[in-house]
Specification:
single chain; 185 residues; mainly alpha; Arc Repressor Mutant, subunit A; 2 domains; 3-stranded antiparallel β-sheet; 8 helices; 3 strands; 5% strand
Length: 185
């Protein structure tokens, strides 16, 4: 299970050191992992680690809403992009469904990029779009995967589908650009 990174900084390193020294005074054994987390959180003015984590999550959410600059995405792996690009033909149609989940995810991003942004579409329209975008004959699988992966949303009755706007990861952007350039030639 992956952990959410929690940035830690102290306004004054001297105050941090004094606080830790005071909290460690009189101890005969070193603190455990959770005790260290609580001590560090207290040293920067929080009640305990849970309070620190909640405060950090709140700050991150506020920064996201205010449009704070996001961290630079990790660079694209050119070997993986090339491997997934081989799943597409010369005009950019998906030839086969890759066996690895990470490769399928990149294929889904390519399909997502071909769905019109900000437009509601009937199921039949989505099906036709997906039929044109692949060659192995299972548009229902692709539609379901796009919804499950969070790239396509649908009404409860399945009558209207809409692309969910988000920024693709670096590898997906590289693959999308590569396939557009190849199909334009």
């Amino acid at each position: 299970m992956s952990r959410t990174p929690l940035p830690f900084s102290a306004g004054d390193i001297s105050a941090l050191a004094r606080s830790l020294r005071a909290q460690l005074a009189g101890r005969t054994e070193p603190p455990g992992h959770v005790e260290w987390l609580n001590m560090l959180a207290k040293a920067v003015g929080c009640r305990n680690f849970q309070h620190f984590r909640a405060q950090t999550a709140e700050q991150t959410t506020t920064q996201d809403r205010l449009g704070a600059p996001a961290e630079a995405p990790p660079p694209a792996d050119p070997v993986r992009v090339l491997k997934v690009a081989r799943c597409f033909d010369a005009v950019g149609a998906l030839l086969r469904w890759p066996p690895k989940r990470s490769e399928r995810d990149l294929c889904l991003w390519v399909l997502w990029s071909r769905i019109p942004a900000g437009q509601g579409m009937a199921e039949g329209e989505v099906n036709r779009l997906l039929l044109d975008a692949h060659r192995f004959g299972d548009y229902a699988l692709l539609r379901r995967e796009l919804c499950d992966f969070g790239l396509l949303d649908r009404t409860r009755d399945g009558s209207v589908y809409r692309r969910i706007e988000q920024r693709p990861p670096a590898e997906a952007l590289t693959l999308i650009r590569r396939l557009k350039a190849a199909s334009a030639d």
